[in-house]
Every structure is written in C-alpha cells, then in structure tokens.
Amino acid sequence: MLNPNQIEAAYKEFVENLQDWVHDGVIPIDLQFLHDQHILDSLQDDKEDPDDLTQYFHVVEGVEKVTLFNDQFIVWIVPKSEGEQPSTSVFIALNHTDKPHLEVVFTTKGVYNSPRYVLKVLQHFLIDMLETEATLTAFEKNA
C-alpha cells in the first residue's frame, strides 16, 4: 500500500494536470444527476448501514482537504469557498500498488454541497467502480 507521502504526491500531480487525468471532465452534481443515477431514491430510505463502503477508510485530515484511503481506493475531499457559494471537489483514484490512477472527479455546490450528498455520491461512484473492476476481472479470466 502507498504511504501518505506518495498519496500526497499523486494528488498534487492530479491537480496540476487535471485535464490529462480526467478525460470525462469534472462531473457537476445537480438535481438531474441525482435523479438519473437514482441517488434521490436511496436518500429517501437511507438508514445507517454498518456495511457502508465509506466506513472502511483510513482518514488523514489536513488544512485544505481530507484524504481517505484503503487497499482499493484513494479519495480526496477538497472544500473550497469560491465567492459566496462554497463547493466541494472529490477526487477518486484506484489504489494500485505502484501508483494511483485517477478515475472520477465530481464537484458539489449549493444545496448539494452537504456531507450527506457528498458521501452518498461518493458511495455511488465507489460501488460503480467496484462493479466495473469485477466485470473486467471476469472478462480477463474468460479470455
């Protein structure tokens, strides 16, 4: 597993060259996204889940961001104050043994910039990435 210095160096590289790493661009979280991904539905019947993916991370709190990491993922949660409207950017990388690979960056603003929405969207992307990795692994085994 990568050490905190390597994780910080990867973050700096991603931020400095964001266009090179995020080919799909930064995903803005809004009502349409939440509706299309059925996240609003899951917020309605949201109960405390002891198997929630967001509970299985080491946490490093810094002045400018919170870093979450485990054997599979590295997540950087970066709050910002842009004028009167605060926002949060979230970077999600796969934690490969030699170097992380940035997969998704999303940003929340306004009413969607609350811990509840940020963590729910984060969980959505983590589950999606786990399903994608499982599918790729299954294809590789069958090839």
Word description of this protein:
- The chain is 40% helix and 28% strand.
- It has a 6-stranded mixed sheet.
- By secondary structure, it is α+β, with helices and mostly antiparallel strands.
- The radius of gyration is 16 Å and the shape is globular.
- The mean pLDDT is 88.
- The protein has 5 helices and 6 strands.
Unreliable sequence segments: none
Total number of strands: 6
The SSE string, one letter per element, is HHEHHEEEEEH
Average pLDDT over all residues:
88
Helical content (DSSP H or I, runs of 4+): 25-40%
How are the strands of the biggest sheet laid out side by side?
A: 1-6-5-4-3-2
Enumerate how many helices there are, as a single number: 5
Give me the secondary-structure category: alpha+beta
Calculate the terminal CA-CA distance, rounded to whole Å: 28 Å
Radius of gyration: 16 Å
Write down the overall geometry: globular
Main pleated sheet: 6 strands, mixed
The proportion of residues in beta strands is: 25-35%
Note the main attributes of this structure:
single chain, 143 residues, alpha+beta, 6-stranded mixed β-sheet
